[in-house]
Amino acid sequence: MIGFLRGKLVSKAPPMLMLDVNGVGYEVEAPMTTFYDLPVIGTEILLHTHLVVREDAHILFGFSTEADRTMFRTLIKVNGVGPKLALTILSGQSAEEFHRCIQNNDTQALVRLPGVGKKTAERLVIELRDRLPDMGDSVDTSLPSSDTVTRVNNPKQEAIGALCSLGYKPLDASKMVQNISVEGKSCEDIIRLALQGTIK
Predict the structure, then answer these.
(1) What's the angle, vertex CA 16, arms to CA 139 and CA 188, rounded to 5?
(2) In sequence order, what are the residues at sequence separation of 6 or more whose Cβ sits closer than 8 angstroms to the Cβ of residue 139?
(3) Mind listing the domains of the chain with CATH numbers?
(4) CA 23 to CA 173: how far, in whole Å?
């Protein structure tokens, strides 16, 4: 099992990023909560990882905090929740926000996430109410902070593509970002605003 990776950030195109670890490029899928914390390309970072082994692929998932990885591992134990849906849930909500939804039986906030219907939301609340990890010790500062915004050629189109990868339909993804001013914003900024407008 690969517990973590420390290396240079080579590329980031949500939900995929690449890390150069001693000359080996690791492709890692990550939730948007991790992308929000990523510094500029070329910076060394540490990601907490979880390896999913399937017959046709080995998929590495990465998280900026131990809390997010723990929540991911808790989610994929729920019947009907696979790694892709768990990643989508953590992209729409932080581990702390999801924790509050479960504790408050807030299924309405959960069903706004793509792929989460009413039955799945109710199952999440019922199965996780007494199984969620304690969020009190979830402080983590693995990723260096950075105020520098990375520029992309077309951040709005990249944001739409990333939202589609997270499970949103192309038309819905386009509607989510159409009213967002992209001036001075990175792809991650646009996705964050789009998700905030959907969840809240």
Answers:
(1) 65
(2) none
(3) 4-63 (2.40.50.140), 67-133 (1.10.150.20), 155-199 (1.10.8.10)
(4) 36
Render pLDDT for 49-65 as a digit per residue (tens, 0 to 9).
Answer: 999 998 898 999 999 99
What is the reported pTM?
A: 0.70
Q: How far is CA 102 from CA 70, 109, 171, in A?
A: 15, 10, 30
CA distances from residue 96 to 68, 74, 168, 172 in whole angstroms, order as listed: 9, 13, 23, 26
The maximal CA–CA distance of the chain, rounded, in angstroms, is 46
Relative to beta strand 44-53, strand 4-13 is antiparallel
Task: Write out the two tokens for 72.
Answer: 């991911």
Amino acid making up residue 5: L
Cα–Cα distance between 193 and 119 in angstroms, integer? 27
Confidence check: pLDDT of 82 > 80:
yes
pLDDT range class, residue 115, cuts 50, 70, 90: confident
Which among 178, 168, 81 is positioned nearest to 124, based on CA atoms?
Answer: 81
Quick one: tokens of 55? 């017959």
Pairwise CA distance, residues 41 & 47, whole Å:
15
